[in-house]
Amino acid sequence: MSGIFITFEGIDGCGKTTQLGMLAALLAAHSIPHIVTREPGGTKIGNKIRQIVLDNSNQNLASTTELLLYAADRAQHVCEELLPALADNKIVLCDRYTDSTVAYQSYGRNLPKNLIDQLNNIATNGLTPDLTLLFDLEVEQAEHRMSSNNSERNKDRLENEQRDFHQRVRQAYLNLAKEFPQRFIIISTAESQENVFQKVCRFVIPKIQTIYPNFSK
């Protein structure tokens, strides 16, 4: 038996992190073994990388440097956190993974996708998600949410990118969902958090029940 690897993807401000937290709380309430993690920053080493790539003072960070930092974070994350948790039959809930790199660095930064695919393969050692939840939202709505919900928090370096950058990232995600329909589930987050979570449960619970059959909402 092995665990289940579920990734949460979407543009900044789409609400994916909130939904991940709600699912984690449900798993905890039912004593389902799980971990909550993120990229970048799922390890102590990764947190140092996260500080570099998201720091607004690093405006001169080259796109290729940014890509390689994300790959380094992922390699450490897979080795230190993801593979051990899955081997221990845990449910892994990960806020961003390889699809984020394709969306942000290929479509957003216009770096070659074949290069990114190669780096992702090296960094992950072939580990792919069992299920990817793509939380989709119009860029303008996401911007409004971030402004309303985080008025006291400064936006990070990527959140501060221009609207057309985030438009390209959103389109990249939608393209990836078409390319990998067996793995991706698109969930609109234009509704209330509870309605969105109902949809999350509809897709996630049957997957988790394959190894924890007594799990239910």
Can you lay out the helices and strands and say which pair or pack?
Elements: E1 4-9, H1 16-29, E2 34-38, H2 44-54, H3 63-87, E3 91-95, H4 98-108, H5 113-124, E4 131-136, H6 139-149, H7 163-179, E5 184-188, H8 193-208
Parallel strand pairs: 1-3, 1-4, 2-3, 4-5
Helix pairs in contact: 1-8, 2-3, 3-5, 4-5, 4-7
* Count of extended strands: 5
SSE order in H/E notation? EHEHHEHHEHHEH
Number of helices: 8
Provide the gyration radius in Å: 17 Å
Largest sheet, if any? 5 strands, parallel
Shape: globular
SS-derived structural category: alpha/beta
What is the mean predicted local confidence, pLDDT?
95
Low-confidence stretches: none
Helix fraction by DSSP (H/I, runs of at least 4): 40-55%
CA(first)-CA(last) distance: 23 Å
Biggest sheet, strands in spatial order? 2-3-1-4-5
The proportion of residues in beta strands is 5-15%
